[in-house]
Amino acid sequence: MAPGLTPWVAKVTPFTMKSDSQFRPGPPPDLSSETWIKDYNEIQSVGLLTSTTRTPEQTDMRYFWADSGPILWQNALRYLSTTYLNDIGDSARMFALADTALADAQIACWDGKYHYSFWRPITAIRLGD
Predict the structure, then answer these.
(1) Domain ranges across the chain
(2) FRET label pair with 73: which of 13, 32, 34, 65, CA 20 to 30 Å apart?
(3) pTM, entire model
(4) What integer pLDDT is reported at residue 5 of this predicted model?
(5) C-alpha span between 73 and 85 (Å, rounded)
(6) What angle do CA 80, 104, 40 make, to 5 degrees?
């Protein structure tokens, strides 16, 4: 498995969760299961640059989520703050609460990734047979 950019985040003490594994998802499907085969084929088909099976809505979602993680949410919070909040204290509270939740979400995501140490779909498609 290729290393992540910030693997140490998996072991950061959460702010509000009881543990880094509190919301750990279930394990990935077995590589010989129908679920794995169906998901693999779907990702390969829909994710292809020249896909003929991807809908326009799926393409729009891809562009929306391209700015994932903190960048996407910080832009949204900045918009909310400048558009709807007139008090710097309210803005600071909103950013603090949202960023605490975002930090815990990232901790939980990295925990699941490194707990199962399973390849990403792009790795499976490039190296799978």
Answers:
(1) 31-66, 67-118
(2) 13
(3) 0.77
(4) 67
(5) 17
(6) 95
